[in-house]
Inverse folding.
């Protein structure tokens, strides 16, 4: 009991001292002071996160550049330069697009449209053997792998794999592709636990986005990583009109994902 009484006495003394000290301030100040402190703490925390993610040098330079852009004549100059780029791009393609259709035709084009499409296709660049990384194919339209792919695609051009009970063949083929790919990653090994899976995508870009999203979600669920970082290669074009928008790329994955350009590709777990 003596210890409890001593603690109670100390608390009373602390309360009396606190009340005596705070009595010198107006009630409004006592209410606003904690709120102001909370706002300052939140601002400092946000500032720390920005410095931590981007570095001191990049953050300071970014702040300076944004401040300079607020100057009226600087903003006008930047807007004028942007408009020049837009005008240049539009002028270069305007003549080529004058004959393009912008509205649905009132009457059907008939089978003659096939000849028109063939005529337009003949204007394409001779790409065979020159598009490594974008087109993987061999032979010609009438023979070889090219011809085989055309025939196979034409057989299933009308299908919709969402209707598994109707288009059972294409659903099976897609499942087999996923299964065979999973086996390359050891899905048949006992250590995998049968957790290797996948799905078909429409192209390389979608496949990359799905892979990054799957990795992000897995790390968030299994390791609690909520602010991942992704290091990737971005080609720097010599043409000033083509620049990689890293911020937009980051938003495609998630606002909390930081994408940083580097000379090597590396998916890092990031900071939890």
């Amino acid at each position: 009991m003596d210890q409890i009484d001593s603690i109670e006495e100390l608390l009373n003394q602390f309360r009396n001292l606190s009340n005596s000290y705070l009595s010198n301030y107006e009630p409004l100040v006592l209410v606003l002071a904690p709120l102001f402190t909370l706002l300052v703490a939140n601002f400092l925390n946000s500032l720390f996160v920005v410095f931590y993610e981007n570095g001191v040098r990049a953050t300071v330079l970014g702040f300076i550049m944004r401040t300079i852009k607020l100057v009226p004549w600087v903003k006008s100059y930047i807007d004028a330069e942007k408009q020049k780029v837009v005008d240049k791009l539009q002028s270069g393609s305007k003549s080529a697009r004058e004959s393009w259709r912008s509205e649905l035709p009132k009457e059907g084009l008939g089978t003659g449209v096939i000849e028109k499409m063939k005529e337009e296709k003949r204007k394409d660049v001779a790409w065979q053997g020159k598009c490594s990384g974008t087109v993987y194919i061999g032979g010609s339209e009438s023979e070889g792998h090219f011809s085989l792919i055309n025939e196979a695609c034409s057989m299933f051009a009308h299908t919709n794999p969402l209707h598994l009970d109707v288009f059972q063949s294409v659903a099976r083929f897609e499942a087999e592709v996923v299964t065979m790919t999973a086996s390359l990653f050891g899905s048949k090994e006992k250590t995998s636990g049968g957790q290797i899976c996948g799905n078909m995508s429409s192209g390389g870009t979608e496949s990359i986005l799905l892979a990054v999203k799957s990795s992000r979600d897995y790390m968030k669920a299994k390791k609690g990583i909520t602010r991942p970082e992704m290091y990737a290669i971005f080609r720097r074009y010599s043409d000033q009109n083509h620049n990689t928008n890293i911020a937009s790329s980051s938003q495609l994955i998630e606002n909390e994902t930081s994408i940083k350009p580097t000379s090597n590709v590396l998916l890092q777990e990031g900071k939890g």
Remarks:
- The CA atoms of residues 169 and 239 lie 46 Å apart.
- The mean pLDDT is 78.
- The beta strands are 227-232, 258-261, 266-271.
